[in-house]
């Protein structure tokens, strides 16, 4: 699971770097990495004991990091605004990202997202509460399954243009099923033991199926019905291939990977800002790379690797001095 957490967030960085539509393997990872992150979170979710205590715990784990990483992002937003417009924003423009952050990274007439990727933190907070509330009910598992189906329907309606975009709403809609799947896998002791030979066989099988489904999904965009019908199976088998690949790495023990795993919150909260700083302050000013440069897959992964390396000492600092930045109380 440490390998899964680390690779999930590390591979998200290249996905968020501008790349040509259809570039591989960036686009392939883009399809199922969010599901992997949600699956990991669901798998690590423990059964609730006291709802009040759980809410308090979620506030430390998710609420405080959401606020802190958006506050840290605001000076960067101001610098970017000045760089793009040649002047500081007026009061109305300066308040737009603040309103957007308060509305969980919403884009409206009066608000715009601040630190866009922190929608994941807010969505995870809501999904944990939903699961806890459902588990308190007699038929809570059925209700949770129904919510997953509703979410999938909302995502399809969004792709059809009937539901307006909102990071948290759409994020929950398309990933709640994989979060719940992770929880159920932990509950029924799936993936708890590793067998290299069996895991390797299952990895090859699920990888081949995921590639076939992905190619079919990507190549049938003109047929909206089949394009959406193939979406969730493609994500599912990509997720399974990823899990089995991480199981193959279980024998490779490293404190570095454990530290990266513990620092996933820093990846989520800081990588967008660090990527932007490198693109606009270093690549643009020193190497003349334009702001709208479309990166090749190799460039995207190279930049993602640089950000990953920069984050390591930051994570160590947070672990030692500022645990709240990683969603920890102490």
Ordered list of secondary-structure elements with their pairings:
Elements: H1 2-15, H2 26-43, H3 51-85, H4 91-102, H5 119-135, H6 140-159, H7 167-187, H8 196-219, H9 224-229, H10 231-248, H11 255-262, H12 264-283, H13 297-321
Explain what the structure shows.
- The structure is a single chain.
- This protein is an all-alpha fold and 330 residues long.
- The chain is 72% helix and 0% strand.
- The chain is globular and about 55 Å long.
Write a concise synopsis of the structure shown.
72% of the residues lie in helices and 0% in strands. It is an all-alpha fold and 330 residues long.
Multimerization status: single chain
Low-confidence stretches: none
What is the typical, i.e. mean, pLDDT? Answer: 90
Structural class: mainly alpha
Shape annotation: globular
**Rg from C-alpha positions?**
20 Å
Helix count equals 13
Instruction: Report the sheet with the most strands, covering strand number, pairing sense and barrel closure.
Output: none
> What is the strand tally?
0
Strand content: under 5%
Distance between the termini: 22 Å
Order of helices and strands: HHHHHHHHHHHHH
> What percent of the residues sit in helical stretches (DSSP H or I)?
over 70%
